[in-house]
Amino acid sequence: MSQNPPTAAPRSTEFSFKVLTVNTHKGFTALNRRFILPELREAVRAVSADVVFLQEVQGTHMRHAERFTNWTEAPHYEFLADSIWPQFAYGRNAVYPHGHHGNAVLSKYPIVHHENRDVSIGGPERRGLLHVVMKVPGREDKPQIHAICVHLSLQEAHRRKQMDMLCEMVRTEVPDDAPLLVAGDFNDWRRNAHRILEKGAGLHEVFVRATGRSARTFPARFPVLQLDRIYVRNARVHAPFVLPRKPWSHLSDHAPLAAEIAL
Fold first, then answer.
1. What gap in Å lies between CA 226 and CA 191, rounded to an integer?
2. Cα-atom radius of gyration of the chain, to the nearest Å?
3. Share above pLDDT 70 across residues of the chain, in percent, rounded to a whole number
4. Least C-beta-crowded within 10 Å: which of 200, 208, 213, 242?
5. Residues 193, 156: Cα–Cα separation, whole Å
6. Which 3-state string (H, E, C) describes the chain?
7. CB of 181 within 8 A of CB of 257?
8. CB contact at 8 A, 243 and 256
9. What pLDDT does 3 receive?
10. HSE (side-chain half, CA atoms, 13 Å) at 230
11. For residues 36 and 40, what is the distance between their CA atoms, to the nearest angstrom?
12. What's the pLDDT tens digit per position in 187-215?
């Protein structure tokens, strides 16, 4: 009597990748005493993230290039990407006589579209939302991954308007079934963003989901305020974590965040 061969277990279709968000403080230590971008690059590399969200990343600065001997000729986001992240997008937010800085996304996956949205409300603060769309090789039949790099205002009334703009961007430009990551420096010390972004865009913060509260990230040496965030939609999160105090506490005034994301 013949027996049927055992049925093979179905292969898991889950896909996971690591994300990192860090405010680079234009490549300087917290009080602008020392230019440490090369050291910051090594620390970012050590995390082995697949997608990196950068805020306050320098595009160019002619005076600094003359003043600091270790200043990089390439824009800082290109220097950080180097050979590890072949894809990157930059959104210029603040422009001044000697240069400019903004947000950037570094990716190991092909970036098929990117757009920087100016959400500055008024006054000297210039802010933007950098929207990036990524296609993961081997997952062409799945929705593309959307990522938005965020740096919001220091003023609460401005932040509220910017969060409304973010929700509108998600509703109009991100398909309902697409995986979505929103990360960066929210400056949301009152923690209003959780409610606003969940109601307006269906976003959930990864540390709140995992631990009940968002992570303390500012100031980096002795974090008190919960300013930096990673929000997701149509994705699961495994073990979000704050990067260790050393060496990060002297590489920026914000502590970086990382998380493993599963689709």
1. 7
2. 19
3. 94
4. 213
5. 11
6. CCCCCCCCCCCCCCCEEEEEEEECHHHECCCCCCECHHHHHHHHHHHCCCEEEEEEEEEEEHHHHHHCCCCCCCCHHHHHHCCCCCEEEEEEEEEECCEEEEEEEEECCCEEEEEEEECCCCCCCCCEEEEEEECCCCCCCCCCEEEEEEECCCCHHHHHHHHHHHHHHHHHHCCCCCCEEEEEECCCCCCCHHHHHHHHHCCEEHHHHHHCCCCCCECCCCCCECCEEEEEECCEEEEEEECCHHHHCCCCCCCCEEEEEEC
7. no
8. yes
9. 52
10. 31
11. 6
12. 999 999 999 999 999 999 999 999 999 99
Least confident of 7-16, 167-176, 195-204, 247-256: 7-16
- Which residue in this structure is represented by tokens 């090369």? 38
pLDDT category of residue 4 using cuts at 50, 70 and 90 = low
Global pTM value: 0.92
33: pLDDT strictly greater than 90: no
Give the span between the Cα atoms of 194 and 192, in whole angstroms. 6
Which pLDDT band, with edges at 50, 70 and 90, does 244 fall under? confident
215-229 pLDDT, tens digit each = 999 999 999 999 999
For the beta sheet containing 228-233, the strands, ordered from the edge strand earlier in sequence to the opposite edge, are 111-118, 128-134, 145-151, 180-185, 228-233, 204-205
**What is the chain's length?**
263
